[in-house]
Write a structure and sequence with these properties.
The chain is of the alpha/beta class. It contains 13 helices and 10 strands. Helix 12 links the parallel strand 9 and strand 10. It starts with 16 loop residues before the first strand and ends with a helix.
Length: about 325
């Protein structure tokens, strides 16, 4: 592997990178970015209400820890045994399906004055490169409205509801509407040299952050280089048959304006054996047709970014290098 591209800004050291989203896509990207900067802020959605996070949310009244935990682990410099411990999921009993990392964060939340303080403490304990922030400390739920007019409340219910309605999502919204953003999240966006949205589920990981009061406005007002990382595949239960242009249009529409100028798109074909598994779920690889994003005022950054393995995911180091190359070019 070649040495990572580094960008040192006079008087400031490492570039200030602010990433926005949730899910596995965001944590994967962070594993690469921590090699090129120690000045990273991950702003993470708190609308999840399913799985282990949903259980803790219902039982303890806390905000969902799962996406936060994954981002903290991605930025941590921990021994392998510690990472295995925090990722460990109980296989039986009343804790079946729950991860130890979620319980650790739940315990910190119990002794902290606020959820963001608990997240900060966990980051300090694990000596992470940068910081992880919930986009808001408010108790947020995600609602989806479909093209046929029906609605469903709860991020975890959107997948099944879309299958049942057999039509596209018209819009998603937060309950309560326009919750207050964590002030530190808005400040991080204001001070960033690079703002990255995605990769991640369009309607349930990326867009919910843009609906929090002040977030979209802070991105638009920021002088940072702003980029969206396009998913490698469409997603079952959210974006079947969507084009690259559809993704960008939905982000702009929900944000209320143009929030980025660049879009990183993978051009490396997904192997047939991997692609067939996705096709069985009515999803396929995303490519940007020549000029389609430029019609929206967005410059397409093409690169081969596919990681090895049985899933179509970004290679974290190659993605980080692509983002840093963009920033270096812009800084000249």
């Amino acid at each position: 592997m070649s040495e990572p591209i580094k960008l040192y800004l006079p008087g400031r050291g490492d570039p200030r990178i602010c990433v926005i989203g949730g899910g596995h896509g965001l944590s994967t990207m962070l594993r690469g970015l921590k090699r090129v900067s120690k000045n990273i802020t991950a702003i993470v959605t708190v609308a999840d209400d399913g799985g282990g996070s949903g259980m803790l949310r219902d039982d303890l009244g806390m905000l969902p820890p799962g996406d936060i935990r994954n981002c903290i682990l991605a930025l941590a410099n921990t021994e392998p045994i510690m990472e295995r411990l925090l990722d460990y999921r109980f296989s039986e009993g009343s804790l079946k399906g729950q991860s130890f990392g979620n319980l650790f964060l739940a315990a910190l939340d119990g002794i902290s004055d606020s959820f963001d303080q608990a997240v900060r403490t966990m980051g300090e304990v694990l000596s992470i490169a940068g910081r992880v922030l919930p986009v808001s400390n408010e108790n947020i739920y995600l609602q989806a409205e479909f093209e046929n007019g029906s609605t469903v409340l709860g991020e975890s219910k959107i997948f099944a509801a879309k299958k049942e309605n057999d039509c596209r999502i018209r819009r998603v919204s937060l309950i309560p509407e326009r919750p207050r953003a964590l002030p530190e999240s808005l400040q991080a966006l204001k001070e960033a040299d690079l703002i990255v949205l995605g990769p991640g589920s369009l309607y349930t990981s990326v867009i919910p952050n843009l609906l929090v009061e002040g977030v979209a406005e802070a991105i638009m007002q920021s002088k940072a280089t702003k980029v969206y990382v396009m998913n490698i595949m469409t997603q079952q239960g959210e974006t079947e048959e969507y084009s690259a242009k559809d993704h960008v249009q939905e982000l702009f529409r929900h944000a209320g304006g143009k929030i980025f100028d660049y879009c990183v798109v993978n051009t490396q074909p997904v192997p047939d054996r991997v692609r067939e598994a996705y096709r069985a779920e009515d999803t396929d690889q995303l490519f940007a047709r020549e000029g389609e994003l430029e019609e929206l005022g967005v410059q397409t950054i093409c690169a081969e970014l596919l990681a090895d393995g049985s899933l179509a995911r970004h290679d974290p180091d190659r993605l980080a290098q692509t983002l840093m190359q963009l920033l270096v070019t812009k800084a000249r």
